[in-house]
Amino acid sequence: MDWVTLALISALFSAFAAILEKKILFQQKVLCFTMVLAVFNAILATGFLPGVNFSEITQIHIWVLLIKTLLSAAAFLCVMSAIQNLELSSALPLLVLTPGITAIVAFLLWQESLNEYRILGLVLLTIGVYLLNLGQNQKIWDPFSVFLKKPGLYISLALIFFTITSLLNRLLVFRQHLATNAFMVLEHYFLALIFLAIFIWQKNKLESLHQALVQSWPYFLALSIVTIIYRYAEIVAIQLAPAVALPVILKRISVFFAVVIGGKLFQESHILRKTIATMILLLGAFLVTR
Question: Domain residue spans in the chain?
Answer without folding.
Answer: 3-288
